[in-house]
Design a protein that fits this description.
The structure holds two protein chains of two kinds. Chain A folds into two domains: about 60 residues; about 80 residues, Glutaredoxin (3-Layer(aba) Sandwich). Chain A is built from seven helices and four strands; from the N terminus they run ααααβααβββα. Chain A has a four-stranded mixed beta sheet, covered by helices on one side. By secondary structure, chain B is α/β, with parallel strands linked by helices. Chain B has a four-stranded parallel beta sheet with strand order 3-2-1-4, sandwiched between helices. The chains are: A alpha+beta, B alpha/beta. At the A-B interface, helix 2, helix 4 and helix 5 of A face strand 3, strand 7, strand 10 and helix 13 of B.
Chain lengths: ~170, ~425
């Protein structure tokens, strides 16, 4: 068996989880929020992080895995630093979302679901973001960007790419 | 300010959302938040509140349109178990984006509505289940809740009364099905969101098998006005059996997409032309999906339909959550239907075979039809699959998945035919 990476929650995080668990009739209810925390802390949820969550809440790994694999927002694999999630459901589709996806993937030279080789950008299509008045909507790392067009995305990609190179961000 | 004259009411849930600083407690209070709460906690009792809400005619704003007061009256008393109040802020129905605005612009309105509902139902712990993508909105709600605790509007002995209630924001993680109330409960218990068989209904056995009321954000945000001005006042707004104001989320091919709160009974045409600045192209819509992507389509002949639960049903559709997706002549209906088929296949929780398999059949067949690789038999396949899904599953997702397919085939058979003929040639 290969060496398993050991990860821990910080003391502060553990205190937060303790307080959270008390808000529910059972610790299991804290599973989704704690997975969100773990994803924030570790970037994504590989098996050893899922094990950590299971141990922290006193749940079996299988229970955690069942939840991680059910919900779209939980990621088992590493993604680019910037996740460009384009809503292509009805409202956005009627306002140019498919063309926007084509533009983004073409300018980054990747397909939907892929990450650029420099590890900067991952492009995915997502379901209705619940912000259809701002169609098309792109979520970039949990932040909503509304009425997005090709030039907006170009500017965003250029901006973060150049600040990366300059060692900022 | 909401007018005490029902004929003069311009807004209920959106009355204060445009006011600057409204998310902060101090400003919200200056603008009237929690003004009537002490009266409710000190002078009203549970039966009185439930009666007022019944009298108001308020129907659930999340989609089903079930009378709220009646739902509350189903909660058994003195069971020895706690009663829970869950606010459904999952807002995942494609086309719906109204609850988001209440939460991010006037979070205290929702908190106040929940305190009043919680008081009426004898709730000690209440939760707001908010879709995971609404991180900003969850943060706004959390900050408002912290302020409410500090001001003794939540927690122990609220405003010096015997009533105590906790309120917690709980984020989902990207599963449409969790907007279905029993799936929401499963999810809140830390499980995959798979709907439960009903009965028992949540009012009797819900969260951790205890009596539970699940109400939509807009529903709960309407409660403070109903209690302040009275159920009769609310019943005077709108039309009989479809009372009050309603927020409509209008998207698609309109010039001014957005949320509009209008009296129930306003016509679709008035909403689109007078509020939304009309269509992007042409004067008559090709398709209107009136209540979110799961509701059957309406066409130009129903453009004058009043926006009520009853009129929409009569027209062959549903008011749903009030999410109106408008399509003008430029819409590619086959591409749209294929996209929605993909959505339902992606979001099916997989526990009922007709839905798990059926949504896959619909998606694959629509992919084929759109790509010009279909054959005449595909129309039969679509009809057959859709008809074998609706009504044969635990929840209504399968019905929702069937709606766009059956609508396309019913209203626009020639478009499908044409696409298939292109292939035949």
């Amino acid at each position: 068996m290969s060496e398993v990476e050991q990860v821990h929650f910080t003391e502060q995080r553990l205190a937060e989880i303790d307080a959270l668990v008390k808000k529910y009739p059972s610790a299991r209810s804290a599973l989704l929020p704690v997975l969100h925390m773990a994803q924030e802390d570790f970037g994504y949820l590989p098996m050893h992080v899922q094990q950590l969550v299971a141990d922290t809440l006193g749940l079996r790994l299988m229970i955690v895995r069942e939840v991680v694999t059910f919900y779209t927002m939980f990621r088992e694999h590493e993604t680019g630093k910037y996740r460009l999630e384009v809503c292509t459901n009805a409202g956005c589709m009627l306002n140019g979302a498919d063309e926007l996806v084509q533009h983004i993937t073409k300018s980054l030279g990747i397909n939907v679901g892929e990450t650029t080789s420099d590890g900067m950008f991952t492009v995915t299509e997502v379901e209705c973001a619940g912000a259809c008045a701002g169609a098309p909507v792109v979520q970039i790392n949990n932040e909503y960007h509304e009425k997005v067009d090709a030039s907006y995305m170009d500017a965003f990609i250029t901006k973060v790419s150049s600040s990366e190179e300059g060692g900022q961000v | 300010m909401i007018s005490s004259d029902p004929k003069q009411v311009k807004a209920i849930c959106f009355d204060r959302i445009h006011l600057e600083g409204q998310t902060g407690l101090e400003v919200a209070r200056k603008n009237g938040a929690y003004k009537f709460l002490p009266t409710v906690l000190k002078d009203f009792d549970s039966d009185h509140i439930v009666d007022e809400v019944k009298k108001s005619g308020l129907r659930g704003r999340g989609g089903a349109g079930f009378p709220t007061g009646l739902k509350w009256s189903f909660v058994p008393r003195n069971t020895g178990k706690p009663t829970y109040l869950l606010c459904n802020a999952d807002e995942g129905e494609p086309g719906t984006f109204k609850d988001r605005d209440i939460m991010r612009f006037d979070p205290h309105l929702l908190i106040e509505g929940m305190i009043m509902a919680g008081f009426a139902l004898g709730v000690k712990d209440a939760y707001i289940y908010i879709r995971g993508e609404f991180l900003h909105e969850a943060n706004v709600m959390d900050a408002a809740i912290d302020e409410a605790y500090a001001a003794n509007l939540l927690g122990e002995n609220i405003l010096g009364t015997d009533f105590s209630m906790n309120l917690t924001v709980h984020r989902g993680a990207g599963a449409y099905i969790c907007g279905e109330e029993t799936a929401l409960i499963e999810s809140l218990e830390g499980r995959p969101g798979r709907p439960r068989f009903k009965p028992p209904f949540p009012a009797v056995e819900g969260f951790y098998r205890c009596p539970t009321v699940v109400n939509n954000v807009e529903t709960l945000a309407t409660v403070p006005a109903i209690l302040e001005f009275g159920g009769d006042w609310h019943a005077e707004i709108g039309v009989p059996n479809n009372t009050g104001m309603k927020i409509f989320s209008v998207s698609g091919h309109v010039n001014k997409p957005g949320n509009y709160e209008v009296p129930m009974g306003t016509s679709l045409k008035v909403l689109i032309e007078e509020y939304c600045g009309g269509l992007q192209h042409g004067t008559v819509p090709k398709v209107i999906i009136p209540g979110g992507s799961s509701t059957p389509w309406l066409t130009a002949e129903h453009y004058d339909t009043p926006l009520t639960y009853d009129a929409m049903m009569k027209a062959g559709s549903m008011l749903g959550s009030g999410a109106i997706i408008v399509m003008d002549e430029t819409a590619d209906l086959i591409a749209l239907t294929r996209r929605l088929a993909h959505f339902y296949a992606h979001e099916s929780c997989g526990q009922c075979t007709p839905c798990r398999e059926g949504t896959g059949w619909l998606e694959r067949t629509m992919n084929r039809v759109e790509a010009g690789q279909g054959c005449k038999k595909d129309v039969e396949v679509l009809n057959d699959a859709a008809e074998h899904m609706a009504g044969r599953t635990i929840c209504a997702l399968a019905d929702g998945a069937s709606a766009p397919i059956l609508s396309l085939l019913k209203h626009f058979p020639e478009i499908v035919e044409e696409r298939l003929m292109e292939n035949a040639e």
